[in-house]
Queue: 2 jobs
Job 1
Amino acid sequence: FYRRGSVENSILEDCDRFFFTETPFLLLHRKLGRWIAPQMPFAFVNGASLWFCDWRPDSHEKRSTCGESCDKGLNSGNKSKTDTLVFLHGFTANRSTWGYEEGGCAWLLANDERFCRRGNVYRIIMIEARGAGRSRAAPGPYTIKQQASDVLALATHLDLDPFIFCGHSMGGGVGWHLMCTAPERLCRVVLLAPIPSGGIPNVPAEQQGSRTHVLQHFGWLPVPSFDDALERGKIVTEGRPRETDHWLRDRADAVSSCPEEYWVEGWASIVNFRIPAPVDSIKTPVLMIAGASDGLLKANIRDYLQLQIGTLCVLAEAGHETAHHDPLGTASAIHAFARGSTFAMQSHVQTIMDRLKKRGLPPPAKL
């Protein structure tokens, strides 16, 4: 039996290049009363072989790909619907960022009955960017722009349009880029502790020139061997219950296995990132999730206040590894956002102003 997030799953993944193709072979198992068809192939897109997993709810009913807000005409007479969530991790990370294992954020959205009631399910796709995780052998460039291009190419390959994109940290930069360059491909966007829309300022130029300087900026040891990365991770951990030895070892493995070119090009892309269009011109609905103890919190709030259709969620128990620190809180926020049960401050204020104007009433002094 195939169980996502289990030891059996990890063993099978080691053979995924050999036993999984991109379409024909599916392993089915019964979970919470639903048949799930997990796929874990490598897709060859934009000249690179990229790892992704595809957790799909298998049903006899015809379901739309993009959810209630985007499926008019596609799902007439059928109340069931599926939202497709595409998850991308941050710098030097992997699929564990979003909770690939049992109890994680993505796992909860795919399996937990609180989020997967009858007629309300998710298709979960997690990507490991070129240079990271199981895609570490893929050639560069390792930039935010290239990652955005890879996401769109994979979405086209899987016929996902439109979809909900969820990006963490550097992956959040990919979200910014997609909203400005390909908004028609998106239903909504979730930015989890994203890099600021204007990049990371005040970083000396010499810190962009070598892997050692990048590591020094992050507080890692000069040589990122697995043992060094693990020891440093234990030093800087905030002692949260979910920061287990298993997680620290997985994070150390992810950090120490990225190629040097990825470190240099990826970090330079983060530092020099500039959103292609003004934040206040973005019309895609955005959920900004931030950790209360994350150093990017202030920058995230500044960006949120400029969004036309933006919703903010600050998780009190989380830092920068937000989805890992509070998987249930993150999953709950994404679920509410995907279902359309959240409110965007700017659009809500505008609605109130329009109602007052229609009734011939003056606007309040402050709103």
Job 2
Amino acid sequence: IHFYKRFGLSSYIMTELRKRGSTSKPVKPFQVKKTTKGETKTQNGNSVNTILGGVFKVLLFIIVVPPMLNYAGLQKEREFLTSNLTRYDIGFSQKMFFNCSGSGKPTVILDAPTGMTSDSWMLGQAELAKLTRVCVYDRAGLGFSDAPPQLNISDPGEGAVARTLGKEGTAVRMVNDLHRIVTFSFPQERPFVLVGSELGGLVARMYAHLHPQDVNHIVMIDPISETLFDDVNNKNDVEKTENPWISYWFGHLLLSFRLLQVSAMVGLSRLGLITGLMTSPLTTLNNESDSEFTIRQKHHLCNPFHVQAVFDEHKGVNESLSQMKEIQVAWPLASNISSTIISGTYYDEQLPPSLNRGWSRAVQDVIDHMDSKHHVITGADRHMIHSVQLVREALAPVVRIIKSWRVQNKA
């Protein structure tokens, strides 16, 4: 300021400031921009799109990631489980799992219940292998056995083979598969003692009818009977109530297995096993030190192709029972083949009384028709072969059959 005063510039500066102040534009106050209805809709639309986009990404993650992880897990598990596994080609590039242990005659072949793998006989095979040669196998499509090949019916050669082998998923086809294994693919010494549970018992019966030269004795544990779905009403029954096994088998069971297959396809079964929401039906057989058994059970439950085979066996059971009715008339059981049926004193706790009564009635029909010996295991039910406490007692009749055969064939 002293500088400006000194050189006479103060009056000049003040004059310039007055000029600029008079010509400068007034400053407008801050104004808020008004939003139109159209702009509001656009903003709301953008927010909705953002939410929908987030939901879509989450759904995409849920839909895509679990199946991919399940597929990768199945490939890794199969590579591990089949590294020391032997499968046998029975024709048309169809390979089946067949395993034997122990030594001696007669040869015992164990057949699993409906829709189950040879793991169900893990305890039984170990028990009987101390005495003789024992074999187990997985029926077509189950476990580590290939599904039946799709033969071209229009081709004369393949059509003839298809008619001879029988329809996929039926007892005739199962019998032919077993016969091809023990005769051509992995020949076993005769005679056989065939031991089957539920559907496995039906397969044992049918095998004895069609190949009597191979069989000495058949043992059936709570076998499925060809009269299971028959009308059980008497003439005086006014209500004519339907056989409960029909609606249970073809309604409840088939739907359950189809849903289980979908669950396996989308990876939910693997998540259920990991979180403990699902368990293997053979949990009682699990030995904590046997990690391979645990992996094998998880692999089967998460494999949609295995579950499809389970579904096919249950779906085809009615046709299998019809086949049994026809075969026992056309090829009666040889007189030198004896039979034994084993059942328990307890009902299956997982089934209502009406179904348990129907099953017991059907088993009694088999006993009467075949004039079989009947052994009743105290405290046992249909799942006795899966019980560590009961499997030895359940197989005691088989042990006596083996020893009796050896006494009669000492020479």
